[in-house]
Amino acid sequence: MTTDTQSQQVRRRPTSQTIFGGLVILLGVLLLLETTGVLDTSNLLTYLPSLFVLVALYALIASDFRNIVGPAIIILLAGGSQLVALGVLEFADLAPLWPVFVIVFGLSVVLARYRARVHTVADDYVSALAFFGGNEKRSTSQSFAGADLTALFGGTELDLRDAEIVNRPAHVSATAAFGGVDVVVPRDWNVRIDVIPVFGAAEDDRPRREEEHDEVDLVVTGFVAFGGVSVTE
Questions:
Q1: How far is CA 205 from CA 90, 132, 183, 230, 232, in A?
Q2: Which of 104, 95, 96, 163 lies closest to 132 in space, CA to CA?
Q3: Is the Cβ–Cβ distance between 10 and 125 less than 8 Å?
Q4: Which of these, 189, 182, 202, lies nearest to 162 by C-alpha position?
Q5: Which of 80, 113, 146 corresponds to the end of one domain?
Q6: Domain span at residue 154?
Q7: What is the DSSP letter of 87?
Q8: Are strands 201-204 and 155-159 parallel, antiparallel or unpaired?
Q9: Is the torsion defined by CA of 104, 110, 116, 122 positive or negative?
Q10: What pLDDT, on the 0 to 100 scale, is given for residue 12?
């Protein structure tokens, strides 16, 4: 099987942006049907907290359980809200459970050393999601094709200094909302940034060099709101 075929198969897998975007689209459709009076979706909107639980669970699994405290807090808050929305519990019933947040924080401190390790991957296409936490990956692929990086109220970093590109340019799609995405590249790479910033910034923070080759090695596209996307070396 050729490298191009392998990369295409990897690209067909659902990415973090695909899953999160799908959930946002579903929520928007339900709200539109409700506000326009086309269909009463109030019963479905009752289960809105469950969407946050699903996103948090995905973030927990996608980070290989290195990012624990953020998703765990979202799961607890959204899960409790769902029980209240269904009438299973009252808000007053949840008040005595506040020490659970202290326990979760303690677990995050105990597991900090493990979570701090950079996850090394050899895949030609990388997907990373940071949701109320951090995510760091280092690619060692010798035929790097691209990446899908999403940071929501958190930060994610992709280190490409040990990666090689066969078919130029490679493409990185970055989405940051109240968070940051950092792409670390070799000094001699020619990087083009086509990110749309809204109350945010998308910059190549590397120092300028006197000589640069014309061929583009990496294209960074995406969207950032109240955050930043940066390319560093």
A1: 50, 25, 10, 7, 5
A2: 104
A3: yes
A4: 189
A5: 113
A6: 118-206+214-232
A7: T
A8: unpaired
A9: negative
A10: 47
Q: Which pTM value belongs to this model? A: 0.62
Same domain, 187 and 201: yes
Q: Quick one: tokens of 191?
A: 């990087």
Q: pLDDT means per 10 residues in the chain (233 residues)?
A: 43 58 80 86 82 78 65 80 84 76 66 60 84 82 90 86 90 88 90 87 80 83 88 88
Backbone angles phi, psi at 85, to 5 degrees: -65, -30
| pLDDT for the residue numbered 2 | 45
Residue where a domain stops, chosen among 74, 96, 113: 113
Looking at the structure of the chain, the number of domains it has is 2
Closest CA relative to residue 225, chosen from 177, 153, 173: 177
- Please, which residues bridge with residue 75 across strands? none
Pair (228, 170) in one structural domain: yes
The pLDDT value given to residue 134: 75
Residues 77 and 167 in one domain: no
Do residues 229 and 176 touch, judged by C-beta distance below 8 A? yes
